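Input (structure):
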């Protein structure tokens, strides 16, 4: 490959830099006015208590709408790498999507759910396969992670090779799949890696993440000692963990019932690529209802305390067939994702209140390992690849900056930590941010994509913190009151000395006073009336409740 002096190689993260999750990365090659682009991963993150009514959040890909995108390459099937595809694909030039068989299976299911299966050109790529996409030659590099078929990408261009690691770790005994393709990574290093764009999740954690084989042994030893019903909660996408739980159950004389939609979907995807092929059939719901407790194991979704997930429904006693009670056991074979602590604690308290004994990584070390590289693994990767430039990604700001410091300690000549929207020129010349493009977040609100600062969510947050006042009145043609003013409150309270009804009656008086101050044409303008009443009631509410609720006024003309 040759290049002209006007051509540049750039990296542009629109999601996944300065945050963990929601990955959306672009690589561009060519002159600034005629670049070709590839997209790597199109992921989501999840809503929390600060985003009421919003479950999914994804990157704003509006900048990419006018780009010449020659392909979308998916590294693996985790939601933070594929979950936004059906939403954002139309904005990504409706480009061809490339994925390995396991990932492609799950993408097809998502596209089917979105009624887009016939629209998207999805092409399977074999493990280790190579794609020619415009000026890019992309080779899949086998790595290990907490899901089948994870891939790094060797992206070759006329100006140099980029190693995009995706999510990874070094697992010498991964249970499912092959070990890291060290030979290929070393060969890339010998040939020369211009830049390594690398996972930063565990950069503050010393040592190594540990092997799935160690978890397999720990789970087998624990499950063998338990009596009555056993439930194991883990991430459904971690097929190696699912495999280990199933085999531990079988060794202990138990049969497995899958509990949760994701478990059924992931295990079907695993079987489609030859995994889980030699285990006993999973119990049906009817079989699980009547199976002897000492011979049953539930494999559940919901380890993060998600309210509608299987384990939460079991804890509430509302699941249609799975139950846990006094003398039963629940193993949490997963980590606590930051932000989920309250939900997980509430879930565990509900289970404990039912008499269920709990087992977590904290009190039973070894029943979970991370899928991301710790410091010793990062050092090993730098020794293999020997890049000229370190570009940390998949981490919060503190992770990226610490990763830069680690890379410099490993004698990497250059390190740069971009934010979402920072366009980094990797070549020619030294790596530097050359532009800042529009970026941000989009919220899935029902079936609608809303920008991060959208009015609907802002009002919902306001209402959640401050409550709502609903004011109704009837005015005659002359603007005089034809009825009493009625005020109702949502999310507001009272006490024995000053009840809510008394407060609302007082607010009705304040509304009538505000109306009385309006004269002439002002009383004929509903908007003026609504604004005057809103100001008066918010001021009064500040004195009563020390908060300013949303005020909605309905004026009926009779």
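Output (sequence):
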């Amino acid at each position: 490959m040759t290049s002209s002096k006007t051509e540049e190689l750039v990296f542009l993260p629109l999601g996944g830099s300065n945050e963990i999750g929601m990955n959306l990365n672009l690589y561009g090659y060519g002159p600034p006015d005629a670049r070709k682009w590839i997209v790597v991963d199109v992921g989501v993150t999840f809503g929390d208590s600060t985003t009421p009514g919003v479950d999914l959040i994804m990157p704003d890909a509006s900048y990419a709408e006018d780009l010449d995108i020659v392909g979308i390459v998916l590294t693996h099937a985790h939601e933070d790498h594929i979950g936004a595809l059906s939403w954002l694909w139309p904005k990504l030039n409706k480009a061809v999507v490339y994925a390995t068989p396991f990932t492609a299976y799950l993408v097809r299911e998502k596209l089917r759910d979105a009624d887009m299966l016939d629209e998207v050109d999805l092409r399977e790529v074999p493990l280790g396969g190579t794609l020619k996409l415009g000026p890019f030659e992309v080779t899949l590099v086998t790595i290990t992670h907490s899901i089948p078929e994870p891939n790094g990408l060797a992206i070759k261009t006329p100006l140099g090779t980029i190693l995009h690691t995706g999510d990874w770790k070094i697992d010498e005994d991964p249970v499912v799949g092959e070990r890291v393709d060290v030979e290929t990574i070393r060969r890339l290093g010998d040939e020369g890696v211009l830049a390594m764009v690398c996972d930063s999740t565990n950069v503050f954690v010393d040592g190594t993440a540990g092997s799935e084989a160690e978890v397999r042994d720990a789970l087998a030893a624990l499950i063998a000692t338990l009596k009555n019903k056993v439930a194991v909660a883990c991430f459904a996408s971690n097929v190696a963990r699912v495999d280990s739980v199933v085999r531990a159950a079988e060794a202990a004389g138990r049969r497995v019932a899958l509990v949760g939609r994701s478990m059924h979907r992931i295990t079907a995807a695993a079987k489609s690529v030859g995994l889980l092929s030699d285990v006993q059939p999973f119990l049906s719901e009817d079989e699980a209802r009547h199976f002897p407790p000492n011979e049953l194991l539930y494999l559940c979704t919901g380890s993060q305390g998600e309210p509608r997930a299987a384990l939460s429904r079991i804890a509430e006693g509302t699941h249609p067939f799975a139950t846990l009670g006094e003398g039963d056991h629940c193993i949490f074979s997963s980590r606590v994702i930051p932000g989920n602590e309250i939900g997980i604690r509430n879930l565990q308290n509900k289970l404990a209140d039912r008499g269920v004994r709990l087992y977590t990584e904290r009190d039973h070390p070894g029943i979970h390992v991370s899928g991301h590289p710790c410091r010793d693994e990062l050092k090993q990767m730098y020794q293999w690849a020997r890049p000229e430039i370190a570009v940390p990604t998949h981490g919060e700001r503190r992770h990226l900056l610490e990763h830069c410091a680690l890379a410099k300690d490993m004698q990497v000549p250059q390190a740069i930590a971009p934010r979402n929207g920072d366009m980094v020129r990797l070549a020619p010349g030294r790596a530097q941010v050359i532009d800042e493009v529009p970026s941000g977040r989009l919220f899935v609100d029902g079936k609608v994509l809303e920008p991060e600062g959208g009015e609907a969510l802002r009002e919902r947050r306001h209402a959640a913190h401050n409550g709502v006042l609903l004011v109704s009145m009837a005015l005659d043609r002359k603007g005089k009151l034809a009825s009493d003013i009625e005020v109702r409150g949502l999310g507001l309270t009272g006490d024995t000395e000053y009840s809510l009804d008394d407060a609302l009656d007082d607010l009705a008086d304040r509304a009538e006073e505000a109306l009385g101050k309006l004269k002439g044409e002002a009383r004929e303008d509903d908007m003026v009336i609504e604004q005057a009443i809103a100001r008066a009631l918010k001021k009064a509410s500040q004195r009563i409740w020390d908060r300013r609720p949303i005020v909605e006024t309905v004026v009926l003309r009779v």
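Notes: The CA atoms of residues 383 and 410 lie 8 Å apart. The two ends are 79 Å apart (CA to CA).
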